[in-house]
Design goal:
- The complex is a heterodimer of chains A (about 300) and B (about 400).
- Chain A has about 300 residues and is an alpha/beta fold.
- Chain A is built from 13 helices and eight strands.
- Chain A has a single domain, classed as Rossmann fold, CATH 3.40.50.
- In chain A, strand 7 and strand 8 form a beta hairpin.
- Helix content of chain B is about 45%, strand content about 20%.
- In chain B, helix 3 packs parallel to helix 5.
- Chains A and B meet through strand 1, strand 2, helix 3 and helix 5 of A and helix 3, helix 5 and strand 9 of B.
- Bound molecules: thiamine diphosphate and magnesium ion (MG).
- The site of magnesium ion has 8 residues of chain A, from loops.
Chain lengths: ~300, ~400
């Protein structure tokens, strides 16, 4: 797999109204290239509902349904059932891939019930959560994905709680494929989408989506921030299938001891949203807790189980 | 095919007969038998449809909408809290213009928990853009579900339809009814030909951002769908009669209204009961008639005006209440008559939370109305019982305990 084998056909068109350096639009562009034209897209209420352009224009060149905030899993279930009907009627030969594109708010918070229900029913779709660790569309409020210490408008002093690990919750649903991806590792991202495309059932992929205005860094730094998230262990790249978790790309090299993990602090310092916390006494503690969170996540992903006493 | 079945099972049998292709639903008393029967028929291979056993009603309606947009004839059923839980998605279904049908078994909404009949659940969804029909008999439930897809799938309508049937009175009682076979139904209701369906060669975006400069027109177009539905309902009801030989009215059903001096207005099974009242009143020389509102949306304002304008008094029975005002049916009836007639209109609230409504009761209270002896709004069957007294006593004790004046 190399860059030259990625198709030139663009399904996410120019003329969209995304902010400069928007991670969702770049992610969508890569994902749609991997899935091709035989795809149905469902966009859950989020920035992506807006950035695609407004009526009567659309920057998305595949069939698209914009769905309500809490309904990613359920709406995909309806489309999956509808596709079976069309197939039984003989109106389609090759079943299209159903792709849900949802933010972290639509996934970790309001949409978790619908997603969990659909996954348990083994509905046939790919669910991609682009995680910008906050409600961006409504102006940067906290979500269940906001990390400890991060500023948002509803955590003005920095978030006092840790983020939840939704990918692990999805693995616990025993679905066929769970993977995490990063914009700094586009080939890994592209390959994982292709892999998901060739599986059946509910597949969950989560993309870390650093949001320049929300995280307070220059839009030109999107890829650097994305890369540092992985290098510092704050975003771990892995995939889970057939009951096993495999680390990928730099995450694997860090865990294998081939490269040194960068301190979480290096990542935090690139973003204005942590500036308050970094300059305070509690900030020191938050930084240490985030380092501990990284180690704990790695231990858990390696299959660590607490000893019985 | 003549069967002896509950209203719920009849709905399930008709869902099969009309060729529903996707069912997405979540259980709630008193709707459960509908979806259990459907699940059983699908599992036995007696019905060919995709069943989505969703984890909530909000999801039930979301999947209903997206299955329909994909191109399937879709159906759901719910009741009370389930319908309320769907509220956001009811707006979504109407706004995105999917021709889906949902049976709603009318039940009270708590607290306190109450599984019995009233119309508060569907009346609370009045302004979502759905067509609403209220059923008064088992056979009408069968026939209306067949008519429903013809109405909603009409390209000039394209609004979802809520078929309301009274909890227990219809849902759980057995009655003999004629359920047409699939082939018979197909002569009246052809296979679904969606106006739009999923087509990767013709990509379309649904439900994107609409700015103030375009939004109002989308809503006006929903209202055009409602207005177009009037004639479609009239035609479909007439055509149904010519094919199946059965008539349940169109937007309204009237009973002995031709020469009536006094009118009773009601929806659902109260209207069936009121027929008996009309008979008895007529025997005693009171020229009463009944106007049953069958479709609450679109509201039959012209029929109301032409039928009731010449009468001397009108009593409207509501099995719901719009707090701070009156029953919802009453408001609509009175506003349909405004500037067309000065006939006095009275509102009576009865049958909330499944309280029985009898023809004697309808008769007694209607007679008061016909002689102008009712208040504008009367709680027709409210009276305090021992249980309520216990609560008052307890409240008194709390006041004393906390020193509250
Ligand atoms: C039921 C409901 N509640 C609230 C909203 C308002 N709302 C729209 S998008 C959004 C936040 C989305 O956050 P996320 O899913 O993380 O996507 P992002 O905006 O960050 O891309 C909110 C709160 C809504 N559309 N629907
Ligand atoms: Mg977000």
């Amino acid at each position: 797999m190399d860059f030259k084998s990625i198709p030139e056909d663009e399904l996410f068109l120019p003329g969209n109204v995304a902010c400069q350096g928007c991670p969702s639009s770049l992610g969508l562009r890569i994902a749609l290239k991997a899935l091709g034209r035989n795809t149905v897209l469902l966009v859950v209420a989020s920035c992506t509902s807006v950035l695609q352009g407004s009526y009567p224009f659309s920057a998305i060149d595949v069939p698209l349904i914009n769905v309500a905030f809490a309904t990613g899993g359920a709406s995909a279930s309806g489309v999956a059932a509808g596709i079976k009907v069309l197939k039984n009627r003989g109106e389609i030969s090759k079943e299209p891939t159903v792709l849900v594109w949802a933010g972290d708010g639509g996934t970790y918070d309001i949409g978790i019930q619908s997603l969990s229900g659909a996954a348990e029913r083994e509905e046939n779709f790919i669910y991609l959560c682009y995680n910008n660790e906050m409600y961006s569309n409504t102006g940067t409020q906290r979500s269940g994905a906001t990390p400890l210490g991060a500023w948002t408008t509803t955590t003005p002093a920095g978030k006092a709680q840790q983020r939840k690990d939704i990918a692990q919750i999805m693995i616990a649903h025993r679905i066929p494929y769970v993977a995490t991806v990063s914009l700094a590792y586009p080939l890994d991202f592209y390959t994982k989408i292709l892999k998901a495309k060739n599986k059946e059932g509910t597949r969950y992929i989560e993309l870390l989506a650093p949001c320049p205005p929300g995280w307070k860094f220059p839009s030109s730094k999107l890829i650097q921030v994305s890369r540092m998230a992985v290098q510092s262990g704050m975003w771990l790249l892995y995939e889970h299938e057939d009951g096993e978790t495999r680390f990928n790309a730099v995450t694997k090299r860090i865990i294998d001891g081939k490269v040194r993990k960068r301190p979480v602090k290096d990542y935090l310092e690139m973003q204005g949203r942590f500036s308050k916390v970094l300059s305070s006494e509690e900030g020191k503690e938050a930084e240490q807790r985030l380092e501990d969170e990284v180690s704990e996540s790695i231990r858990r992903l390696k299959g660590w189980v607490p000893e019985y006493t | 095919m003549r069967v002896l079945e509950t209203g719920n099972h009849l709905i399930a049998l008709v869902a099969r007969a009309v060729g529903v292709e996707v069912v997405s639903a979540y259980p709630i008393t008193p709707q459960t038998q509908i979806i259990e029967k459907i699940a059983e028929m699908i599992s036995n291979g007696e019905m060919e449809a995709q069943y989505i056993p969703v984890e909530s009603e909000h999801s039930a309606c979301a999947a209903l909408v997206s299955a329909s947009l994909t191109g399937a004839r879709a159906f759901s059923a719910t009741s009370a809290h389930g319908l309320a839980y769907m509220h956001e998605m009811l707006h979504y279904a109407a706004g995105i213009r999917v021709p889906v049908v949902m049976a709603n078994v009318n039940r009270a909404i708590g607290p306190g928990w109450n599984i019995w009949c009233d119309h508060q659940d569907s009346i609370s969804q009045r302004d979502t853009g759905w067509l609403q029909v209220y059923i008064s008999s088992h056979q009408e439930a069968v026939d209306t579900l067949i008519q429903a897809y013809r109405i909603t799938e009409n390209y000039d309508v394209m609004l979802p339809l809520m078929l309301n049937l009274d909890a227990f009175v219809l849902s759980h009682t057995y009655m003999s009814a004629d359920v047409p076979e699939r082939e018979e139904v197909e002569r009246f209701l052809p296979k679904y030909k969606p106006l739009w369906k999923l087509d990767t060669k013709l990509p379309v975006t649904h439900g994107s951002v609409v700015y103030p400069s375009e939004f109002s027109e989308t809503r006006q177009s929903m209202e055009e769908g409602q207005e177009n539905a009037r004639d479609v309902i009239r035609e479909v009801s007439r055509e149904f009669e010519s094919v199946f030989g059965r008539w349940h009215g169109d937007l309204v059903e009237t009973y002995r209204m031709e020469d009536a001096e006094y009118a009773i207005v009601a929806m659902g099974t109260i209207a069936s009961e009121a027929r008996v009242t009309v008979e008895r009143l007529r025997e005693h020389g009171c020229n009463a008639g009944l106007l049953r509102v069958r479709f609450f949306r679109p509201f039959p304002k012209d029929e109301i005006a032409s039928c009731l304008s010449g009468t001397k008094a009108v009593v409207v029975f509501d099995r719901d209440f719009s707090y701070g005002m009156s029953g919802a049916l009453f408001t609509e009836v009175r506003s349909s008559l405004y500037s067309k007639s000065d006939v006095p209109v009275f509102n009576v609230i009865v049958g909330l939370g499944g309280r029985d409504v009898t023809y004697e009761q309808i008769e007694q209270i209607s007679l008061l109305g016909f002689s102008n002896e009712l208040d504008e709004v009367t709680w027709g069957d409210s009276h305090l019982t021992e249980s309520h007294m216990v609560t008052f006593e307890l409240l008194g004790k709390f006041r004393e305990l906390y020193g509250l004046k």
